[in-house]
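Why show two proteins at once? Because comparison is the fastest way to build intuition. When a single record is shown, students tend to memorize it. When two are placed side by side, the eye starts asking what differs. So, the first record is below.
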Amino acid sequence: MSNVPSSWPIVSLYDFCNPKQWPTIPQTAFVEKGYPVYGANGKIGYYTEFNHEQPTVLITCRGATCGTINVCKPKSYVTGNAMALDGLDESRVSPKYLVYALRNGSLAQAITGTAQPQITRQSLTAISIPLPPLAEQRRIAEVLDRAEALRAKRRAALAQFDSLTQSFFLDLFGDPFANRESTVRLGEVAEVLMGQSPPGSSYNTNSSGTPLLNGPTEFGERYPIEKQWTSEPTRLCQEGDILFCVRGATAGRLNRADKKYCLGRGLAAIRPRKGMAANTDFLFAVLDRYYDYFQAKGVGSTFININRDELQALPIPKAQQDKADALARQLTAVEKLKTAQRASLAELDALFATLQHRAFRGEL
């Protein structure tokens, strides 16, 4: 923090709040209507009681999203998967400023563990943030709020394109859940290859060997992002395969393979059989509809684990070639529009990063 203005004191997190993990409640105790429940990644359901009357800054404290910042709504129940920054002294710290300060890379040094990253009360003692005068904090938060609002609009537009894709699919083929008599099993029209993790000793991050995918942490907007490699590849997907998450809270998430990858046990590859009308675009659109279905299977259980038999048994609408080709054309057109929106969002992301950098150097 050497570039912080000298007039801004660097203050320990514990000097103005009391980080705390509250008891976690089982999903079996959730209700249809009640007070919002916040877990590691935001709101996850409803409960009959609340333990936070006011909006509170939350830090995800375990898992792949460790260090993510959320803010709960008034009268919410915060579980132990998030660290609640209770007792915030708002006479010294603006809550919105605190959110941006923590998102500015401050939490990296508090994350411990590799296989299961976590943040503890003890590790948070290492966290300090710069505290300009309260009026300056509010001004910084206001500027960043405006920039963030523009980014949110672009993200919302991208989400609408996803809804449009689903509308195209339903118009052409109907809902596979409602029309089971006109469906076939996924295994009849596609090959399903389950991942198998290579030996841990073969992993590396210096681009040696075959790129390795273990789950959605390596997923990009459309294609995976290489982060690690293996010198002893096991199960290999092919270019053009659909990549399907089969385990955990992200079961059902999809990406496309732009090259050959080694797949860990958290993923499966789905490949259309030759000579079938069910092309890759068609199958991707079908499988995208199953995300909520697989997430619902995990309610009340501790871990979602989709096996090969379940995937092969999924009902897939029978696809006539002309309709499958029409869907492919529509999806290609939508993808071009999404590409333009992503480019615009990337520009806004760069602008936000610049503003954030200047904000915490006292240059706004």
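Second record. Ask yourself what differs from the first in the token line.
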Amino acid sequence: MLDRPRGVGIISAGLGNVGSVSRMVERAGGIPNIITSSSRDRRERLLILPGVGHYDAGMDALSRAGFNREFFLQHVEEGGYILGICLGMQLLCRESEEGERPGLGLISATVKKFRPRGPEGVEVKIPHMGWNSVTVNNQGSPFSASDETVRFYFVHSFYVQPDEGSNICCATASHGITFCAAFAANRIYGVQFHPEKSHRYGLSLLSNIISVVYDA
């Protein structure tokens, strides 16, 4: 089988450090292309939606640039993949306690705020910031099957809660509660952590995702 150019579209709508994501994608074997408008001809099979900041501001920024629900749905319907990072993961969901605007609604989940005390009364620091271990629940996910402890860098005050009965959460982490650190459903991936800040762990994850997209 002939090798296909491993183009990775990185959406730039003022929501995150696309430069860091772009550099990590390149190290992972992808060809990063910065996308600033939904009107361009898209040839990348993988789109990355990075994001930091407030939920409503994120949805407003996407709307101004034309990156609406239909844009992402069309990409998936045409056989493409999506990876949401941090706020980008949350924007793929239906709604958030952080804002009033509806999300993209591509994933059956809501976004919840960490409470200052966990279920057993243990004080929880908000935001959740720094390195944390991640438990992989589904070896069919883009995470590499390994007995090694997987660790990623987090910065967030809200977390994704998939709908009851949903089987999309493929990795969890703990911060006062056990929460969904990554999901995978219908060629749509989301990670709450920052792979571009997670050194070899983030590099391995992005390499695996690019391989899934282009070697399947």
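One difference worth noting in the second protein: The helical segments are 18-27, 55-64, 69-77, 87-91, 199-215.
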